[in-house]
Amino acid sequence: MEHRDIYLPGPFDEATATLKEKIFFSAIALFAEYGLNGARMEQIAEKAGTTKRMVVYHFQNKEHLYMQVLEYVYTRIRGAEHQLNLAQLPPVEAMVLLVETTFDYHADNPDFIRIISMENMQRGRYARDSARLKEVNRSALTLLDDILQRGQAKQLFSTAVTARDVHRLISSFSFHYAANSYTFALLFEEGSDAAAMRAHYRAMAVRVVLRYICP
Questions:
Q1: Dihedral sign, CA of 36, 39, 41, 45?
Q2: Would you state the torsion angle of the CA atoms of residues 114, 116, 122, 128, taken in this order, to the nearest 10 degrees?
Q3: H-type helices in the chain, by residue range?
Q4: What is the pLDDT of residue 208?
Q5: Residue 189 contacts by C-beta under 8 Å, 6 or more apart in sequence?
Q6: If DSSP states are collapsed to H, E and C, what string results for 19-41?
Q7: pLDDT per residue over 126-152, tens digit each?
Q8: Looking at the whole model, is its pTM more than 0.85?
Q9: What pLDDT is attached to residue 5?
């Protein structure tokens, strides 16, 4: 497995972005739309306003670029969690904020959802080959462990729950809402107000998690 730094450009700004950043964010959009196999280097180059030769110059090949994108999208969501400073909040408030933020992150970042879905369709092939993804995602459980232990010490949370299971519960609810938004809305929510439904499911996610972790 290759050991290297994860490429972490800041938020994309067309006016100030470097060519490497334009290539990278073009790749995110095209991998999200077509997957690794469907997206072509020529398409990425065209969207970035450059040539395939420059894409290769900056990122070697399509597989290397895809790996960097995969690591980037996971690092971004873990970074969003870290910025919440949950250790400074009482455990119940910390858990509520984490659930709400996770739900909103999934809803507001559809490319993240699509790329993770595509990777699962490939049975996690590239995630398995990354030397960094487990390290990056370890913080998700560390953060939850801290909240749970503080809540358990105050007898607010059940001692039977684990950080892994709570993480799966939060991720499942958030991921389903975002990944199935089109079909679920079409089949079961036709005519409903989208913003109201989002608020409803966000609050529902909080209630479900709290009922699961509380004694």
A1: negative
A2: 160
A3: 19-38, 41-48, 52-59, 62-82, 91-108, 110-121, 125-129, 133-153, 163-179, 181-188, 194-213
A4: 97
A5: 197
A6: HHHHHHHHHHHHHHHHHHHHCCH
A7: 899 888 888 899 999 999 999 999 999
A8: yes
A9: 75
